[in-house]
Specification:
Layout (H helix, E strand, L loop, with lengths): L10 E4 L3 H10 L5 E6 L3 H4 L2 H11 L3 E5 L8 H13 L4 E6 L1 H13 L6 H8 L9 E5 L11 E6 L4 E6 L5 E4 L9 H19 L8 H22 L4 H15 L12 H13 L3 H16 L4 H12 L7 H18 L6 H4 L7 H6 L13 H11 L1
Parallel strand pairs: 1-8, 2-3, 2-4, 4-5, 5-8
Antiparallel strand pairs: 6-7
Bound molecules: 5,6-dihydroxy-NADP (NZQ) and zinc ion.
């Protein structure tokens, strides 16, 4: 096991009615002004807004609304939120939504306390914020696991980069699977695939030798696969939805990453594709993963073979490479089975998208078993078409 430091500060309230039961007590611990942040309005249609607002009013909070946070949140939206938080001397940011709302609020929380531009600070000076407006998250769509970490993925439209910034980590997160029952089914599946992707991107990192994190990871992957299959037969199965909700947090709360250098090459490619096309995150990953893996598996054949056998139940073939390939085939078949796109055309990526600039602006990761060149990434992107 590599050396590591581990802490996860987010207190999780998980399950049915967790917001109704505990949000009031949590709010008592913060000041009067609460910024209620949300997306395009789903929370107004499914009753979550009324639940939360009722509790805020009961606790006599002054509520500042920050709405319209879009999927794949932009840097301009972060700046709008930071200005609003500063003007109103916000004591707590309450992020109600999915990864997009949570990510946007993490950076709002940091930017509001800074005199300098947080993008320049992190990407040019490589310095990181240390002061934050406290953040709490109420998750309404699962998949990213954003609620238990301090990473945020923000699209800088001017620079054409969808990049990771570090911001606040939520003190408290409410995960009520019932709040996700109104999520369109396609999004439920693409969110669950995002979770599977996070687990795979960690599992295929380094080192490849046996360690506890990988054993736990295999259990998470098998659980995600099993529960997606339950939902295919029974969309509203609460047990399966709640298992996927916790798997989503487990895949991104650092536990699986302990002692590992993660891969995340598929994510880096998808993020840049997103910067140019604004595509759906989980669906974009579904197209990229099998193509990327067929390109790199020979450099990590033992690990891919273990993935095939322990996650997909593939029987050992004549040699390691054949077993490895059968696992990737199983992954590709699963993506088809669950109705996610398998090509950029199916994903709705415009044919004239300049894949060369997407490739050239993609970050090459150190944890991938094969260190890719930008030309190879371009080949992978062309194969995804
Ligand atoms: O905006 P509203 O109207 O709320 O609609 C949202 C949005 O259209 C809808 N939705 C959310 N809860 C709902 C609901 N619809 C009905 N009922 C509900 N209960 O779902 C749509 C998608 O929401 P979004 O937050 O965009 O999805 P997701 O959670 O997948 O987040 C995607 C973003 O997270 C980033 C992605 O790159 C992308 O920008 N990621 C963040 C990570 C992190 N911080 O750890 C890790 C991931 O790898 C990922 O990159
Ligand atoms: Zn992801």
């Amino acid at each position: 096991m590599n050396n590591f430091i581990f802490q996860n500060k987010t207190k999780v309230y998980f399950g049915k009615n967790s917001v109704k039961e505990y949000l009031g007590n949590v709010l008592d611990q913060y000041g009067e002004v609460v910024m209620l942040a949300y997306g395009g309005g789903s929370i107004k249609r499914n009753g979550v807004y009324d639940d939360v607002m009722g509790i805020l009013n009961q606790k006599k909070k002054r509520v500042v609304e920050f709405s319209g946070i879009m999927s794949n949140p932009t840097y301009a939206k972060v700046q709008e939120g930071a200005a609003l938080a500063r003007e109103n001397h916000v004591d707590l940011i309450l992020a109600v939504g999915g990864g997009s709302v949570s990510d946007c609020c993490k950076i709002v929380s940091a930017q509001a306390m800074l005199d300098e531009d947080i993008w320049e600070m992190q990407t040019v000076k490589h310095t990181y914020p240390s002061k934050f407006i406290p953040l709490a998250a109420i998750v309404t769509v699962f998949g990213t696991g954003s609620e238990m970490n301090n990473g945020a993925v923000i699209t800088n439209e001017e620079k054409k980069i969808k990049g990771a910034l570090l911001g606040a980590q939520a003190d408290v997160a409410f995960l009520d699977p019932e709040y996700s029952m109104s999520v369109p089914f396609q999004q439920v599946i693409s969110g669950a695939f995002d979770t599977l992707s996070h687990a795979m991107e960690t599992y295929f990192g380094k080192p490849e030798e046996n360690n506890l994190s990988d054993d736990i990871n295999e259990a998470v992957m098998r659980s995600v696969i099993r529960n997606i299959r339950v939902l295919l037969k029974d969309e509203n199965n609460y047990e399966a939805r709640s298992e996927l909700a916790w798997a989503s947090a487990m895949a991104e709360n650092s536990i699986l990453k302990i002692g590992k250098v993660t891969d995340f090459q598929a994510h880096m490619i998808e993020h840049q594709l997103g910067a140019y096309t604004n595509c759906n995150h989980g669906a974009g990953l579904a197209v990229i993963h099998p193509v990327l893996y067929r390109h790199i598996y020979k450099s990590g054949a033992a690990r891919f073979a273990r993935f095939a056998q322990n996650v997909w139940g593939v029987e050992a073939k004549a040699n390691e490479e054949k077993t490895a390939l059968a696992g990737i085939d199983a992954l590709a078949a699963f993506i088809k089975e669950i109705g996610l796109p398998t090509t950029f055309a199916e994903l709705g990526i415009p044919e004239d998208t300049d894949l060369r600039v997407v490739a050239d602006s993609t970050v090459v990761t150190a944890g991938c078993c094969k260190k890719l060149t930008h030309d190879e990434i371009y080949d992978i992107l062309k194969e995804c078409r």
